[in-house]
Amino acid sequence: MAASIPAPLRNLLFVLNPVSGDISKVELESSITAYCTERGRKARFYHTTGQNDLKNLRHHLQQHAYDAVFAAGGDGTVSLVAEALLNGLVPLGILPLGSGNGLSKDLGIPQDPREALKLTWQHQIHAIDTLQINGRFAAHLADLGFNALIVERFDQGDTRGPGAYVRIATQEYLSYAPATYQVETEHEQWEGPAFMLTIANARTFGSNVIINPDSHLDDGEFEVCLIEPFPGTAAPGILYNLYTAGFDASEYTRRLRGRQVRIRVPGATQVLCQIDGEPCQLTTPIEVKIRPRSLRVLVPESAVL
Ligand SMILES: Nc1ncnc2c1ncn2[C@@H]1O[C@H](COP(=O)(O)OP(=O)(O)OP(=O)(O)O)[C@@H](O)[C@H]1O
């Protein structure tokens, strides 16, 4: 992946989600300010509210000039800031504060937010692909099927963290009824029932599940990763594969690749989806398109994407 040698980023905006992570945002703001001031950078802060954040952030970015905008929050905040910066020259930085932090992991960004602050003065800038899913923005991973259901239940629940996610997944697994999908790329077609179907721009979920090994964020294509219904006896092997970059090793998994994909769900006009960790309903057929190299991102100097 080609990287450009960046000019120093002096004027920085930090978009903070006050409710993500269990770190004090007051302390975080003062440590960011101190860190930036020591290095001749100017830090400003923008707080999300959970209401009209995209529209309001876009308006703010039209009124002010920044050299980089950092998302300080979980996957939802990262996706929000990424969408606001889409197709522009200003790069996205990430201070991971959520429970998953998927895109930051795929970009090789340190998971300690104070370590990630180094990106303000030591970084490479890369341009990565993003996706358009029924007109909605996606930077990382989206799902139909089982994982979308778990993300929705998790979102509705009071408890956070990996433990809550595993508990919900275990409860839902026993009664889950897979839907049938028809997937059509510009190269091939596939039809059948699927336990889950991941629309993958990236490689790894925040849970460290590697759903799309050997993929690249700037290759101008994305993958549809399918896990077909499997007997309980196959579950440990599939799980092992998912944590060891062996997605393709199972007879119950397959991947399709393309720049444009249409997904039909016979009998359903609306389906539950999760996009970058946020649940939503999508009208069928679902149309997915790649936006090649449409987002500039800050990554550590040592990162290999
Ligand atoms: N001030 C706020 N009050 C309530 N909700 C907010 C506020 N700001 C943002 N949100 C909501 O927070 C969600 C995004 O959260 P985010 O993903 O950043 O953190 P998280 O859920 O803790 O992390 P993760 O997605 O990694 O689990 C969005 O649904 C957004 O609408």
TrEMBL record:
The keyword Kinase applies. The keyword Transferase applies. GO terms for molecular function: kinase activity. InterPro entries: ATP-NAD_kinase_N (IPR017438), Diacylglycerol_kinase_cat_dom (IPR001206), Lipid_Phosphate_FormReg (IPR050187), NAD/diacylglycerol_kinase_sf (IPR016064), YegS/DAGK_C (IPR045540). Residues 7-137 form the DAGKc domain. Keywords: ATP-binding, Kinase, Nucleotide-binding, Transferase. PANTHER family: LIPID KINASE YEGS, SPHINGOSINE KINASE. This is Diacylglycerol kinase family protein. It comes from Hymenobacter canadensis.
